[in-house]
């Protein structure tokens, strides 16, 4: 087999594995969230269908596939139909440049668990994951529903505003490492726990986590959905598989965000003492992913004005201040 044919086959297999694994994990995440929230709120959660309620996933999948797909009569039908696809596609495309595990040898060949190892991977991931915003915005506007339009408008102001916070936080990381490559950022933290960037950039870590909650539409910072105010926001008119595509994209983005935080701030997939790197990246990502559920169960929903005031009056000034301090330390 020629080198090109091997490369093409390897890339195809990686794409299939990423789609299959992360689509499955996105489905399982819905079960995990329901169980975790139940424990926090002293409820039982899914427990009737299968052992520990695990088969509830299958029941939900059957419901999504068989539920009637309704398109509102006065909606922009083409855009209404495309918006859920944008949500899922952009989430999975962003995963293509994220190194999920350390490289390993299989059948005498070195395999890198990353679909596209590009030297500007950080920019690529930020750009492609940000496209999820268009799914929310277009889906809300195309629905011809006032609650959906309000959810889309909230998404417009919140996601664009908090992207500035996340970008400014990541510029500090790039200044320290001197590279946009996620592999280089991971390798920079390979000298033990004290080389982890969370200890050099604790403020950037906090700012990026807050921005990540906005990007992934998670409570308590989510403005696009709120049952008490705007029903289901941008997704009010969606049903069946189209509704499911939005949430597959949302949970895939959450998983990608958890892996990205682990790579950027928590040492990535470097070995830790006697624990192999592939186990470490899984443990770190699961821990960060758990934060989504923890925050939803522990904190009340913030008002839109509170979220935006926090962005412009607190977080952006802090991000700029952190950037200036980082530049000063590097130069002097």
From TrEMBL:
GO terms for biological process: aerobic respiration. It comes from the Bacteria. Keywords: Cell membrane, Membrane, NAD, Oxidoreductase, Quinone, Translocase, Transmembrane, Transmembrane helix, Ubiquinone. It catalyses: a quinone + NADH + 5 H(+)(in) = a quinol + NAD(+) + 4 H(+)(out). It is found in: Cell membrane; Membrane. The chain crosses the membrane at residues 12-32, 48-66, 78-101, 121-143, 155-181, 193-214, 243-266, 272-295, 307-331. It is a multi-pass membrane protein. GO terms for molecular function: NADH dehydrogenase activity; oxidoreductase activity, acting on NAD(P)H, quinone or similar compound as acceptor; quinone binding. GO terms for cellular component: plasma membrane. It holds the Pfam family NADHdh. InterPro entries: NADH_UbQ_OxRdtase_su1/FPO, NADH_UbQ_OxRdtase_su1_CS. Its EC number is 7.1.1.-. Belongs to the complex I subunit 1 family. NDH-1 is composed of 14 different subunits. Subunits NuoA, H, J, K, L, M, N constitute the membrane sector of the complex. PANTHER family: NADH DEHYDROGENASE SUBUNIT 1 (PTHR11432), NADH-UBIQUINONE OXIDOREDUCTASE CHAIN 1 (PTHR11432:SF3). NCBIfam families: PRK06076.1-2. NDH-1 shuttles electrons from NADH, via FMN and iron-sulfur (Fe-S) centers, to quinones in the respiratory chain. The immediate electron acceptor for the enzyme in this species is believed to be ubiquinone. Couples the redox reaction to proton translocation (for every two electrons transferred, four hydrogen ions are translocated across the cytoplasmic membrane), and thus conserves the redox energy in a proton gradient. This subunit may bind ubiquinone. This is NADH-quinone oxidoreductase subunit H. It comes from Campylobacter novaezeelandiae.
């Amino acid at each position: 087999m020629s080198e090109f044919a091997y490369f093409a086959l390897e890339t195809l297999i990686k794409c299939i594995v990423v789609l299959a694994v992360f689509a499955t994990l996105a489905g399982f995440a819905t079960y995990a969230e329901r169980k975790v929230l139940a424990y926090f709120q002293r409820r039982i959660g899914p427990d009737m269908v299968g052992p520990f309620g695990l088969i509830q996933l299958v029941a939900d999948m059957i419901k999504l596939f068989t539920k009637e797909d309704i398109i509102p009569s006065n909606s922009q039908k083409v855009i209404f139909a495309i918006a859920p696809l944008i949500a899922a596609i952009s989430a999975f495309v962003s995963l293509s440049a994220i190194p999920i595990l350390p490289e390993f040898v299989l059948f005498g060949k070195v395999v890198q668990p990353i679909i596209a190892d590009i030297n500007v991977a950080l920019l690529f991931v930020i750009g492609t994951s940000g496209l999820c915003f268009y799914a929310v915005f277009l889906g809300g506007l195309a629905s011809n529903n006032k609650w959906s339009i309000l959810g889309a408008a909230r998404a417009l102001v919140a996601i664009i505003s908090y992207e500035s916070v996340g970008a400014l936080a990541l510029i500090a990381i790039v200044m320290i490492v001197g590279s946009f490559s996620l592999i280089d950022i991971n390798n920079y933290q390979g000298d033990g726990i004290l080389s982890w960037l969370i200890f050099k950039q604790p403020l950037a870590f906090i700012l990026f986590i807050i921005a990540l909650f906005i990007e992934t539409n998670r409570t308590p910072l989510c403005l696009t959905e709120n049952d008490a105010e705007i029903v289901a926001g941008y997704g009010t008119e969606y049903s069946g598989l189209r509704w499911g595509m939005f949430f597959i994209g949302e949970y895939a983005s959450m998983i990608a965000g958890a892996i990205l935080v682990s790579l950027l701030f928590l040492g990535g997939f470097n070995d830790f003492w006697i624990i192999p790197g592939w186990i470490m990246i899984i443990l770190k990502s699961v821990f960060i992913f758990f934060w989504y559920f923890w925050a939803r169960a522990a904190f009340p929903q913030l008002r839109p004005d509170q979220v935006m005031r926090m962005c412009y009056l607190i977080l952006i000034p802090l991000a700029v201040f952190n950037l200036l301090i980082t530049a000063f330390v590097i130069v002097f």
